[in-house]
Amino acid sequence: ISGDVEIYFDGLQLNAARVTYDLSEEMVEIVGPFQLIEADGVTKTYGDFAELASDLETGVLFAVKRVIDDSLRVEAAEVTREAGRYSKFKAIRASTCKICIESKEPLWELVAADAYHDSVEKHVTYRKARLLIRGFTVAYLPWVRVPDPTVTRADGFLAPVLRFNSALGNQLTIPYFKALGNAADLTLAPHVPISGLQASSLKSQTLEARYRQIFQDGYLELNGAISSDDLKD
Questions:
Q1: What is the value of pTM for the model shown?
Q2: pLDDT band at 85, cuts 50/70/90?
Q3: What b/e string do you get for 147-168 counting C-beta neighbours within 10 Å, with b at 16 or more?
């Protein structure tokens, strides 16, 4: 079938330039550009070529870009789908930052050898990853798991923040969010010094903390920090 092909199956929607169905193998060959929209309606996969089972749940997709909840953007050379739940990415780049017109580099991104997305448990696991800030590697992560953007409350690391300060030097803040039930949470944010970027000779170690809790008729938020530096005796 050629042209603006649209296929709907069990909540999935496929839009492609050309689709070939093999009756004997029960396989679908998809020639792009194509768009595959998952049953949740917020996970969209774009690519150039794919070979999938007739139910579109299992197979391989090539030259892929995936957008989850219009927030997390993932690019990969190849994606393997398993039972409609798991997606294995090879040679992956992922970021929640939108690229500005002035710069083709996102503020931050993860570059990994491979990654797994579990659409049921709603988390993404990266292996052999590097954290890049404006294209520069600032950390190596052999293994890291983060919730996908459709999760409203989950434990895990939040987006890092890069700070430049003439007194304290250059620091990378890595916040960690801990949900304490449905009505409270705690965020811990250590400041990691970064050398080599015109850093100050002063050393500072800081741990920020934020506790929030909501009540039936009120709201509580506590913010604080513990610091150790040589700014004063």
A1: 0.62
A2: confident
A3: bbbeeeeeeeeeebebeeeeeb
Paired with 94 in beta bridges are: 74, 110
Which residues partner with 61 through β-bridges? 50, 79
How far is the C-alpha of 172 from the C-alpha of 156, rounded, in Å? 17
Burial class (CB in 10 A: 0-12, 13-18, 19+), 36: buried
Helix, strand, coil % (nearest 5) of the chain? 0, 65, 35
Rg of the chain over all Cα atoms, to the nearest angstrom: 22
pLDDT in tens, 185-225: 999 999 888 765 444 455 668 899 999 999 999 999 999 99
Sign of CA dihedral 197, 143, 81, 79: positive
CA distance 48 to 30: 8
Go through the chain and tell me how many residues it has: 233
Residue type, 102: E
CA 76, chain centre distance (Å): 13
- Residue-by-residue DSSP string for 73-132: EEEEEEEEEETTTEEEEEEEEEESPPPPSS-SS-SEEEEEEEEEEETTTTEEEEEEEEEE
